[in-house]
Amino acid sequence: MLSKKEKELIIEIWEKLTPVAADIGSDALLRMFASYPGTKTYFSHLDISARSRHLLFHGKKIVQAITEGAKDISQLTVTLAPLQTLHAYQLRIDPTNFKVQLFSHCMLVALACHMGDDFTAVAHAAMDKFLSAFAAVLAEKYR
């Protein structure tokens, strides 16, 4: 699905973004909540206002999980196994959210805003493929 060059680019991008993980993750979450208000129900127990401690913490956790998955894309299913179980059985996230990649689309916009000219067409295409694979793996427990 991803070429060697695309995999290297994805690793490079996420490694660069690690220091601002909370900002990018919370930005993507805020975009998701604004674009898909139904997703807020899973966060009703948290303060999901801009720059809140909860939103920054959760955003950072998401970016860290994505970064970890990017390190060895061929092992994505193994790497994400604990998150699959968490989302499917404990949080009971509607699997439709993964299939239509609501968060992935918002993450792409957040990346484009943050990275500016560095978010080239090649980077965008590679990241879109990777985030699609990431979402697909998270949805596997629902089958």
Q: What does this protein structure show overall?
A:
This protein has helices spanning 4-17, 21-35, 53-71, 76-90, 96-99, 102-115, 121-139. The protein is 70% helix and 0% strand. The longest helix has 19 residues, at 53-71. It is mainly alpha-helical.
Please name the defining characteristics of this protein.
single chain, mainly alpha, globular
Concise account of the structure shown:
70% of the residues lie in helices and 0% in strands. The chain has 143 residues and is mainly α.
Largest sheet: none
Order of helices and strands: HHHHHHH
| Mean model confidence by pLDDT | 89
Q: Estimate the strand proportion.
A: under 5%
Shape summary: globular
Helix coverage percent: 55-70%
Number of helices: 7
Query: Structural class given helices, strands, pairing?
Result: mainly alpha
Unreliable runs: none
Number-wise, the strands total 0
Terminal CA distance: 21 Å
Radius of gyration: 14 Å
